[in-house]
Amino acid sequence: MPIRIPDDLPAAGILKSENIFTISESRASHQHIRPLRVLILNLMPKKIETETQLMRLLSNTPLQVDVELVRVDARASRNTPQEHLDKFYGDFDRVKKQKWDGFIITGAPLGKIPFEDVYYWDKFKEIVDWSHHNVTSTLFLCWAAQAALNHLFDIKRETRDQKLSGIYKHTTYNHHHPLVRGFDDQFWAPLSRFADFNSKTIKANSDLTIFADDSDAGVYLAASPDCRQVFISGHPEYDANTLSNEYLRDLDEGLNPDLPANYYPDDDENQIPRAKWRSHGNLLYSNWLNYCVYQVTPYDLNELK
Fold this sequence. Notes:
The chain is of the alpha/beta class. The chain has one domain: Rossmann fold, CATH 3.40.50.880. Helices cover 31% and strands 25% of the residues. The protein has ten helices and twelve strands. It has helices at residues 10-17, 25-28, 47-58, 82-88, 92-95, 121-134, 143-153, 199-205, 242-252, 278-294, and strands at 3-5, 22-24, 36-41, 65-71, 89-91, 100-105, 135-141, 159-172, 186-195, 209-214, 218-223, 229-232. Strands 1, 2, 3, 4, 5, 6, 7, 8, 9, 10, 11 and 12 form a twelve-stranded mixed β-sheet that branches. Helix 1 (10-17) packs across helix 3. The longest helix is centred in the last third of the chain and has 17 residues, at 278-294. It is globular.
């Protein structure tokens, strides 16, 4: 089944060129099934790139998914045309009276900024609290995962001196759980963060189940017992060249970044990097949509508590 997106969203043409099954809003309106309603709060600066990456993963299931994009407010963006934001992004206050099957909150380039100094911190906390009663399952990515852990469990911020960037091999735990069904014992995933996701700290301060981690990089995947909150400390949605673009950007800004680990062939930044995490990323999103959302969400979303 397809992912349903606005007819003229830029991602639609990109996904069509990749032979990814999408369906226009006009065509979907004539189908007599209820699609899953998934809300995306996109906090990344390059919103078109991020929304396309996420929709690529959401489309890889037999379920029809109705995606809506939302922002915290109507501030202008330096990296996304204002007309795109005004046309495709609604404000959170407009959708908060509705119920949703799934919710994705992206990362944000706020690695070393204290939470209380983030201009939308109060709004972020409001949204996290709202999601607990109005969404079947929420997926927190990277910065959003760290921020939500702080708000929900008072887990203090831990940051690294040097940015953790690259592809890391994680070990899978609790193989019997549907969220990691089909996972290999170890898998690669992209990381790009200053945050430290310490497994001992998370175990001591929350009731979350840890499903994957790396001895150097820390926890990668964790979830609440009912999977209404799922935390991913990396970026399974990243394209093959995303980390390279970030590395070159940081070089241009004089930040002296480390070369992304396990990323460039022979650690040569002049060689073209190859993605070795796509199968894991697709499986993770497919499992989340199927087992954490579709299998448990009520047909009538008004019944959601």
